[in-house]
Amino acid sequence: MSLKTERRGIHVDQSELLCKKGCGYYGNPAWQGFCSKCWREEYQKARQKQIQDDWELAERLQREEEEAYASSQGAQAGPQSLTFSKFEEKKSNEKTRKVTTVKKFFTASTKSLPKKDIKEAKSPSPSLSRQYSLETDRVSKDFIEFLKTYQKAGHDVYKMSKIFLEAMYHKRESNIDEQSEFTQDFYQNTAEKLQMYWKVSPDKVEKVTDQIERFIMTRLYKHVFCPETTDDEKKDLTVQKRIRALHWVTPQMLCVPVNEDIAEVSDMVVKAITDIIEMDSKRIPRDKLACITRCSKHIFNAIKITKNEPASADDFLPTLIYIVLKANPPRLQSNIQYITRFCNPSRLMTGEDGYYFTNLCCAVAFIEKLDAQSLNLSEEEFSRYMSGQASPKKQDLENWPADTCPGVKQMHRNLDLLTQLSKRQEHIVNGAKKLEKDLIDWTDDVTKEVKDIVEKYPLNIKTASQSP
């Protein structure tokens, strides 16, 4: 079987990683294949269309009502028209509310707020006023020190960040998608203001945005990571269960070009597994992305050492899938969703972070849909492996390729011994059941024979009174 054929189920054209709108940025399954920028545009169009449709429906209903009122008589027309006017007013307010963006927070002042809101704006909310961890305190100090170099612009950024955190507290009951959109709006509008108003260079804007992300997400993490209102936890358990069920998948099935017999390569594999597991311990999206990037670089190094040449994309993706299967990272889907929702969007659209993250999403999607054809197995083999009735093995383990992991070889030797032991045990159990059946049949036969003899030759015992 050729290498090309074996890879047929794993290969992903690199063009498929890009935004399907053709903008050149990396796409994401969570955004239906769009990049962050195009997804937001499509989402805004869909939302505006829904608002417009609702508005047109309200106008049509009003016209129909007015025509009905004109043709009818009585005192009911007045109250009904008034009622529908209130409905129209409500729809108008709803439309205005929906199209309002985060920009209003940039120009908001305490003068325009009610007294109650002024008090809340000046004092931290109960959720934000809790005792911060050492990390939170350190991040706050670092953020303030960083912004000092930007003087007035830094002061505005800090003020906007605090206003944003307060606004997010008031949005705590909103669904996670609305909070995500609000956060993305904040990133975008802050970057635009820095460039247009304060004339900050794009490179520095990127650095400021990264620091803003670190500052706000350190505080928001526990509220927006895997929220109860989503099915993130359910997806985590599903993926975890799926990976456990695929424990039998071997590197050879995935065409992984990594020789773990080489000490340096084995060390790279261990580091890659450690990095992707460590992702769950990070609180900031950028730090989680950094774990994915380090993991991916270890994979590329492992492939390069094994092949003595730079790794290709076709080498990288199967190996990444193999690492994910070996690591079974905790809360994998929750971490992916968290990064997608709250990371600085520019990091997911371009650069090595975006490339590696997109490949991880592809790897998870492949694992979720993995079937017999993907591994070049028959449906019967795949079903037996998934059910645990069998495991992939060679008749002669010594004939396996030299790059096969020794641990895998030993595992299959142990599985062979267990299979033989199971067969012997099954044979003994079947023999015991047969012996038990034979004993029962023999007992029944003896009982029947005794009964027949007694009936045929009854034993009459005479008493003393019956004697002659």
TrEMBL record:
Cellular compartments annotated: Cytoplasm; Early endosome; Recycling endosome
GO cellular component terms given for this protein: early endosome; recycling endosome
UniProt-annotated stretches for the region Disordered: 62-89
Gene3D superfamilies associated with the record: 1.10.246.120, 1.20.5.4770, VPS9 domain (1.20.1050.80)
SMART domains: VPS9, ZnF_A20
Molecular functions per Gene Ontology: DNA binding; guanyl-nucleotide exchange factor activity; zinc ion binding
Top-level taxon of origin: Eukaryota
Species the sequence originates in: Xenopus tropicalis (Western clawed frog)
Biased composition (Polar residues): 70-83
UniProt signal peptide: none
Alphabetically ordered keywords of this record: Acetylation, Cytoplasm, Endocytosis, Endosome, Metal-binding, Phosphoprotein, Protein transport, Transport, Ubl conjugation, Ubl conjugation pathway, Zinc, Zinc-finger
Domain A20-type: 13-47
GO biological process: endocytosis; protein transport
Protein name: Rab5 GDP/GTP exchange factor
Pfam families for the chain: DUF5601, VPS9, zf-A20
Domain VPS9 span(s) in chain numbering: 233-376
UniProt gene name: rabgef1
